[in-house]
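sorry for the late reply, my laptop died twice this morning and i had to redo everyting from scratch. anyway the thing you sent over, i finally got around to it. pasting the sequence first so we're on the same page, its 138 residues, then the predicted structure underneath. double check i copied it right bc i was rushing
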Amino acid sequence: MRCFLKRVAFLCGLLVACTTTTGPASTAWQGEFNTVHSPDSIGGDVAVVSTDRMHASIQINNAPAGTILTWELRSGSCVQPGDILGGRGVYPSLAPDATGSAGAEALVDATMSPDGRYEAAVLDASRSVLACADLERQ
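ok and here's the structure:
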């Protein structure tokens, strides 16, 4: 949790730094993962700052060690997911260590509407969703 709070503080710093009277509007989002389809109770969190593009940071725990997982941000919700934001190729893979922890950051050439609904998903190699987080605007 301490690592997540540092990441949120960093992203909030980006939000403040990006807010100007002439620059694009900024929004910050965050969410906590809940297990969807996994024998492991995958947890973790995600934080996003959206201006003219998005800076996203993810941290997962209790994931199966020795696997390669993917993640993505999407419009919609965990119950009703929409389109991937920015395309699959912009999100670096997650490789959980022996404790099941992994983290990554992505710069995404897309934006999030302040009125929109968004979610983050952690997926296995077959693209099955293992964990999902509905994002809340901060």
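Confidence is low (pLDDT under 50) at residues 1-5, 12-21.
thats about all i looked at so far, will dig more tmrw
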